[in-house]
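Why this split exists: single-chain examples teach little about how molecules sit against one another. For that reason, every record in the complexes split bundles all components of an assembly together and asks for one structure covering all of them. Below is a record exactly as it appears in the raw files.
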Amino acid sequence: MAAKKPARRPPVSAFERPLVTVDVVIFTVLDDQLKVLLVRRPDVALDPHPGRWALPGGFINVEVDASLHHCALRKLREKTGLQTPYLEQLGSWGSATRDPRGWCATHVYFALVPPPEVGEKTAETAPPGSAWIEVAMALRKRLAFDHAEILAAAVERLRGKVEYTSLPAFLLPEPFTLPQLQRTYETVLGRPMDKSAFRKRMLDAQFLTEAGPIAGDAGRAAMGYRILDRERAAVFPRTFRSVEVQSTKD
Amino acid sequence: MAAKKPARRPPVSAFERPLVTVDVVIFTVLDDQLKVLLVRRPDVALDPHPGRWALPGGFINVEVDASLHHCALRKLREKTGLQTPYLEQLGSWGSATRDPRGWCATHVYFALVPPPEVGEKTAETAPPGSAWIEVAMALRKRLAFDHAEILAAAVERLRGKVEYTSLPAFLLPEPFTLPQLQRTYETVLGRPMDKSAFRKRMLDAQFLTEAGPIAGDAGRAAMGYRILDRERAAVFPRTFRSVEVQSTKD
DNA sequence: ATAATAGTGTCTCTCAGACACTATTAA
DNA sequence: TTAATAGTGTCTGAGAGACACTATTAT
């Protein structure tokens, strides 16, 4: 998609154009913790929030980005090298005051990726200037712009959808086992789940396909699975623990 | 929120700024049909889609719009005069090709409003140049830009959420009765529902408050209700007919 | 054999739907 | 008294959770 030089056109709108950015909230599960990829803003005085942690993102490049979605994929690729993440639009945040440089609207995506490959111990495998940070800790930091609010919304959306979808499967490298998947659910939701109910639910939802047994460090080998359709998550007919969720409403 | 004249600033981004618009998908139930408010684009040659039906919306005005949300509220107010609708962000659509005038991103909101007040027969009470159009018919029209795709996404989101939330309550003028609310659910979803299960579900969800009996045209008067919290919809622990929804998956 | 993990069977409780029932109002 | 609508009671079936059970592997 070659971008042509914009030809001369009459002005299409009397209004000043806002700044337009795309940010990506990239989640993974690493060391049994839900983590998010943050980048450090350049430590120069003319940057809006020098040295602060921020979500990866930046201005739309109308010359190379065919669409918002492509722009998000590009930024994700630049940060993680990944080609086929789970990527979903989260929403947009725009106001006169959220960026000191002017009226600015950002389109936010959220991505689920498997943890980075590591040599020995899971550690600093993030690109330079960026880091995988545990979500609760990230929320405690004073992030740049309104990124704390955006991150909170992303975490809420993730936790909410995990209650009734197969989203955590996208946080694992394939093939994975059902015990690994259950552990991922438990990490994201922060509570233990019943093994039998969990397995029934996953297998009944028909979104996995067997990929041969996988041996762990000890005990019986477990069946490996792959996601049938990486384009969309499976939706379960009920949420987990719907009863308790209701009763805690009071 | 007085907008000051933008002072001279150094350029903050080397990139050309995209066009930024806000569109609103406004739903109501009128004559037992789910309808959407559409506006006719001006019938002049320099308009991108002259004479076509489109979603109400337009460019952000950085002088008057404090935020995207305020912009959506303004457009809604301009079209319907309503102050307290249910308003939720649907998503954003942006690409190099969706608007012939240039790279354009639109932030789409969807609103649920009670039907317009009418003198005698429900009919043309929409503002000039606009009309309430039944959703299936609107989807069949060749709308301006990618508004057909956006409308389809809005309808899908609405129908999806209606299965497990109290959203249809925002389509009725208050106070309303449970039979009226059930009829609204049935209109939106296009299928009949069981009265007993419906009532149990609504009352158990604790989002309504009694507002005195309301007499209909015939038969016993029904209890009127108001929404307790107009800022958010109630979420039910299960979807309606989760069993059948599952079985139709095959 | 034992420890460790994977995977299954069974019981119970809750809730949604089906549907028949009662209640209230106007003519 | 009847028609029309509002509202309730009761039964059933499906599925989630609890938890005890069996299965498989390495040492």
